[in-house]
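Discrete fold record:
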Amino acid sequence: PDARLRRSMAPGAATWLAIVAANAAFARAAAAVAIRFARIRRTADRLAPGLVLLDFRSHRLALFTALADAYALTAVANAAKRNHAAADASGSAGWTPWTAVDPLLPLLKTAATDLAARTVRECRSRCGAPGFVGAPILLAYEAATEAYRTAGGDNRLVRFDTARGMLTAEPPAGRAPETLRGPGDFARLAAVCERRLRTVLADGLVAARASGAD
């Protein structure tokens, strides 16, 4: 039965890729709407009357950060589409079948939906009242990002299952880099963080079992 379930879930990899790409598109579109609005909306501030919103550093920083997040998410989505190979559905099933089908794509889906939801929410809030009525498309984007938190596998369950898989897998080896100058240095740093998190998780599980917790 487990093997049949994994084979049935294998085509879901295309769904996860689509969800990641869709959330990247939501984030880009929301950033474009918010920045376009900030370029024309003038304020009645007594200290600097007549300035457009984008002239204020705090507003500009928030929107450009949202734009950077949107393009980072787009880069992740494009890389996932280029590098993804057909899932063989040969992994061991945990509480859920998703990580047994593909260990990475479900996790990318959770990260993409969370980042997109945060980005779209920030863009909508920076538009004030027009974010609700003048540009209602932002509400639609926000609703879609929230829906995808559970569509294609609940984000929390995917993380639980990923954590369970990490406990049974061999942790990455290597030392932390002395400097962070290139992609390889960041990859090694991430490996060190993963190994430490795995240790914390394993120690917490041992403590929970010792205390009789489920």
Observations:
- The chain has a mean pLDDT of 85.
